Amino acid sequence: MRSIEFNLPDLGLTDPPFAFEQGEFQTTVQELPLGQFKVTPRQGHFSEHVFITSSNGFVPFSSTACYVVASEKYLYTCESGLVHVYLINGDEMTKIGDIVAGCEVVTMDLLDGDTVTFYPDPDPQYMIKFFFVETVNGNDRVLSVLDDVVVSPDGQHILYHNPLADQMHMLYLDPVTKVVTSEPFSFSDVPLDAWDLQYVFMTDSCMYARFSSYAPSGSTFHLLQYDFDGNLIGEVKDDTLENMYTYSLYEFGEYILVADQGEDTLRLMDENGNTVDSVKIGDLIGIPSGNLTHYSFLKVNDEGDFLLVYAYDHDGVLEDLVFNIHIG
Question: pLDDT (tens digit, 9 = 90+) per residue, 3-60?
Fold first, then answer.
């Protein structure tokens, strides 16, 4: 017997439409105070609906909500070495194109004569890593879309760190030859026991590193401040917080502005790490905190403008949502 034929009656049944097929999920945002400032959110829009369906019943990870960076004009997201480029046009993120990055030096033309050139790490240590130079109106800006390739805002320092292998090196781009070289790097002192490096954040003046420290009683998370030679300046801590779950960090006037991954808050801190005020991200964007998945909080300019790219679990499908956040 080579085949079996089933004659089933047509009952006229169809699958109900999936929620994500109705378009991007719409929330109700609200303005909230943060210390002396006001945080004003607006929901933006991707010109192409960005979603990821579940696999075997499990909602996957949205790399495009986590491997992401913004300049004043463009938004870059990344999945498996494919970089998506969007024009930031008010609340509209307009897709420009895609480019494969990480294997060789490659340049992509953007709009208005702008370009972006991707440079691979010459010492990738078994993983494809890269950074890029965006050229807008003849001005260069060094950026990274990867969380383990960190760039200072002025572009003078580029650090690669592999949390799994405890390996770090500084990258240097020759301004004339455009050749990338690397030199080993390490933090001179980590005053913690049984620690792992998780994230590194850079300002124009120093670096901050988030470590996890392991003990029989459980893990704790610490934020340490270093100079660009790797010398310890001190620990940034708030006595009211058991852990420093810092997920992003920016200088904001006389303050430090962080996204706190542990409590899903935007936290305004003084230079010593003491909380001045905080606001729940879920309250800002109209999504209950218990439903928050993963997201990125991105600085756009020095005028208080940020983007929040957030992966929303929409009935088993991850949708990338984008919000304009102004703090001022």
Answer: 777 777 777 666 555 555 666 788 999 999 999 999 999 999 999 877 776 565 565 6
Question: What pTM, to 2 d.p., does this model score?
Answer: 0.89
- The residue among 291, 297, 242 whose CA lies nearest residue 266 is 297
Distance CA 169, CA 160 (A): 5
Domain boundaries, the chain: 63-186
What's the rounded mean pLDDT across residues 257-278? Answer: 91
